[in-house]
UniProtKB/TrEMBL annotation:
Residues 32-290 form the Aspartate/glutamate/uridylate kinase domain. GO terms for molecular function: ATP binding; glutamate 5-kinase activity; glutamate-5-semialdehyde dehydrogenase activity. One of its GO terms (biological process) is L-proline biosynthetic process. This is Delta-1-pyrroline-5-carboxylate synthase. NCBIfam families: P5CS (TIGR01092), PRK00197.1 (NF001221), proA (TIGR00407), proB (TIGR01027). The keyword Amino-acid biosynthesis applies. It is found in: Mitochondrion matrix. Coiled coil: none annotated. In the C-terminal section; belongs to the gamma-glutamyl phosphate reductase family. Residues 323-588 form the Aldehyde dehydrogenase domain. The lineage of its organism: Eukaryota, Metazoa, Chordata, Craniata, Vertebrata. Can form homodimers/multimers.
Length: 758
């Protein structure tokens, strides 16, 4: 009986009607009954003699965890032959060494030859030891395991099939993990031409076919086949053009070239695919993945069940659109075409997009209204995020103005010469700006981000992948359609792609061969998750916006309340909003301090007292839990410092290197603060809210970077460019510049070409 799990920490229903496989990876978390097939290469050591105990222990731990979650786990295992081979070799060596020691002495022991061992004998010697090992490992997790040995004949005899089925169901009912293996000690050779004659016939000639047959017989939800390769490739793994196939569909066999079989065991990849397709046809979902890789084998099974992009997933449902990998390749090709356009043509695309934002205003706002209504009905967004989700006529007008600024300032961004050097006579070197490549921008609850980022990518000649939050799905769809409409005027529609598939953010962050830079736009938690998940791809951004305003003893009364109010209250959800207010100790119990507190109360800002500030008060506000808090709402921390130096030290210790401000009329103090605060943006007598690409005159920004490499602060077009070197020579070779060569290095700096005045 399939039912909800009785384990309290499982939050998804583990039930579904069997008969149809899962269509998407994200549905695998609902799998109740799972078969894990362990190939010979997974279970055995590299020398094929003995078991890979560390790997096996990790697999048992994962299976136990899933079993304890209320799932029904079964294992189809190899390894008896290898374990038996190890035991028999040991016995043979021991007996030979005794005989030779008696007759020849120790000197000839190293010359002993080990005879070739027959596989059936090895299996007979290894079965009991293999099962004892499994039992010992599962006992550590309070789980009982039971051994079942089968042959092909057991599936052809109806009575034996019923017996096997009944035994397995009874074991699962008692929360026991069945360990199934072919009885290699007596197994006959497979019958010729009996394989895959129909949905009810598959020869059990290796553990791949055994696992498939068992999965269908037991109406299993998921079959996980672990091997020594990452999954299914479109050509033999290791060849130059081999690409891992994420999803494999029936009928795709013609696009695949199979390599040789596994280093050990009976079945190669072709046998695995045949078995997987047979199981899929019987209603069981299948994933083929690597169970030997040291970096992933410790969580490969649980990752698959969680729906992560691991190995090759077999599905009967083809998606309507391209895969995310195909979208990335389309963005790469489109970006290169975009970069090859004239600057005026790229500007025309952005001007057209700006016009569409105002011309199609009603349609955009209607789509945004749907998103807002759905978010409010589901109650899944906090008020600050709802504000970010909302679009208005004034927001669209501001967007259009910003886009026109980008178009006007982008005329000479790509291909600009930034350095010229004469290396030698007739040998000139240039450093020129070029696009980074393919950008992946992940954003939450901010549909206005889509046209901004698209315009910056177009201006800089980059291909772009956009992954928006599902809460803004309707808004993102219309804005992306308008972006592609603008791109069409110069035939580069594919340069900007919106990812609509079910890919998790973590899976996108693994596409290191397709994506060159990730830019997260959203909560600090989102940014941290992406920084953690990114595999070999640089991440540009900041995880937190803990911005400080320091009020100095020489601060102007008129400026203080205006700057603090604007920094905190104008848009408290922004990453450049004030979070910690630092006040010089001498200002406590002064009229200026009272004005600050009164203003914050009028604006309904909740105050949290820092430890030092709380010590000065008899009745203080709630003491802050952490001085490293980004509130993102009408809340802030107030702390007291003794000097500008202490303010700087506090910012360096508790800040996030985003934006920090000093309010003072003392120019010397201000300059000291500006020079010594190590943040991306440091201001004097100005609101933290000026830390913005639009307000800096960049037109827009893809985000604010607090990193110290490449780009820092609000990132506009310049931050989306890198450089390449162009060397123009005339039959030059390095040997001419040797000690006895005919040429000398000049290394003369040459004037740069005039920039486009427009």
């Amino acid at each position: 009986i399939r039912c909800w799990s009785n384990i309290p920490f499982i939050t998804v229903p583990l039930s579904r009607a069997h008969g149809k496989s899962f269509a998407h990876r994200s549905e695998l978390k609902h799998a109740k009954r799972i078969v894990v097939k362990l190939g010979s290469a997974v279970v055995t050591r590299g020398d094929e003699c003995g078991l890979a105990l560390g790997r096996l222990a990790s697999i048992v731990e994962q299976v136990s965890m899933l079993q304890n979650q209320g799932r029904e786990m079964m294992i189809v295992t190899s390894g008896a032959v290898a374990f038996g081979k190890q035991r028999l070799r040991h016995e043979i060596l021991l007996s030979q060494s005794v005989r030779q020691a008696l007759h020849s002495g120790q000197s000839q022991l190293k010359d002993m030859a080990i005879p070739v061992l027959e596989a059936r004998a090895c299996a007979a010697a290894g079965q009991s030891g293999l099962m004892a090992l499994y039992e010992a490992m599962f006992t550590q997790y309070s789980i009982c395991a039971a051994q079942i040995l089968v042959t092909n004949l057991d599936f052809h005899d109806e009575q034996k099939r019923r017996n096997l089925n009944g035994t397995l169901h009874e074991l699962l009912r008692m929360n026991i993990v069945p360990i199934i293996n072919t009885n290699d000690a007596v197994v006959p050779p497979p019958e010729p031409n009996s394989d895959l004659q129909g949905v009810n016939v598959i020869s059990v000639k290796d553990n791949d076919s055994l696992a498939a047959r068992l999965a269908v017989e037991m109406k299993t939800d998921l079959l996980i086949v672990l091997s020594d390769v990452e999954g299914l490739f479109d050509s033999p793994p290791g060849s130059d053009d081999a690409k891992l196939i994420d999803i494999f569909y029936p009928g795709d066999q013609q696009s695949v070239t199979f390599g040789t079989k596994s280093r050990v065991g009976m079945g190669g990849m072709e046998a695995k695919v045949k078995a997987a397709l047979w199981a899929l046809q019987g209603g069981t979902s299948v994933v083929i993945a690597n169970g030997t890789h040291p970096k992933i084998s410790g969580h490969v099974i649980t990752d698959i069940v969680e729906g992560k992009k691991v190995g090759t997933f077999f599905s009967e449902v083809k998606p309507a659109g391209p895969t995310v990998e195909q979208q990335a390749e389309m963005a790469r090709a489109g970006g290169r075409t975009l970069a090859a356009l004239q600057p005026e043509q790229r500007a025309e695309i952005i001007y057209r997009l700006a016009d569409l934002l105002t011309d199609q205003r009603e349609e955009i706002l209607l789509a945004n209204k749907k998103d807002l209504e759905e978010a409010e009905n589901k109650g899944r967004l906090a008020l600050p995020l709802l504000k970010r989700l909302s679009l208005s006529t004034s927001k669209l007008n501001s967007l259009a103005i910003g886009l026109r600024q980008i178009a006007a300032s982008s005329q000479d961004s790509v291909g600009r010469v930034i350095r010229r050097t004469r290396i030698a006579k007739d040998l000139d070197l240039e450093q020129v700006t070029v696009p980074i490549g393919v950008l992946l921008v992940i954003f939450e609850s901010r549909p206005d981000c889509l046209p901004q980022v698209s315009a910056l990518a177009i201006a800089s000649g980059n291909g772009l992948l956009l992954k928006g939050g599902k809460e803004a799905a309707h808004s993102n769809q219309i804005l992306h359609r308008l972006t592609q409409e603008a791109l069409c005027i110069h035939g580069v529609r594919d340069a900007v792609q919106l990812v609509n598939t079910r890919e998790e953010v973590e899976d996108l962050c693994r596409l290191d061969k397709l994506i060159d830079l990730i830019i997260p736009r959203g909560s600090s938690q989102l940014v941290r998750n992406i920084q953690k998940a990114a595999k070999g791809i640089p991440v540009m951004g900041h995880s937190e916006g803990i911005c400080h305003v320091y009020v100095d003893t020489d601060a102007s009364v008129e400026k203080v309340t205006r700057i603090i109010r604007d920094s905190k209250c104008e848009y408290p959800a922004a990453c450049n909003a004030l979070e910690t207010l630092l006040i010089h100790r001498d200002l406590l119990r002064t009229p200026l301090f009272d004005q600050i507190i009164d203003m914050l109360r009028v604006e309904q800002v909740k105050i949290h007292a820092g430890p030092k500030f709380a010590s000065y008060l008899t009745f203080s506000p709630s003491e802050v839990k952490s001085l490293r808090t980004e509130y993102g709402d009408l809340e802030c921390c107030i702390e007291v410092v003794d000097s500008v130096q202490e303010a700087i030290e506090h910012i360096h210790k508790y800040g996030s290197s985003h934006t920090d401000v000093i309010i003072t009329e003392n120019e010397k103090t201000a300059e000291f603060f500006l020079q010594h605060v190590d943040s991306a943006c440091v201001f004097w007598n100005a609101s933290t809210r000026f830390s913005d690409g639009y307000r800096f005159g960049l037109g827009a920004e893809v985000g604010i970077s607090t990193s110290r490499i490449h780009a820092r602060g609000p990132v506009g077009i310049e931050g989306l460019l890198t450089t390449k070197w162009l060397l123009r020579g005339d039959n030059h070779v390095v040997s001419d510049f040797s000690e006895h060569g005919s040429m000398k290095y000049l290394h003369e700096s040459l004037p740069l070409p005039q920039r486009n005045a427009s």
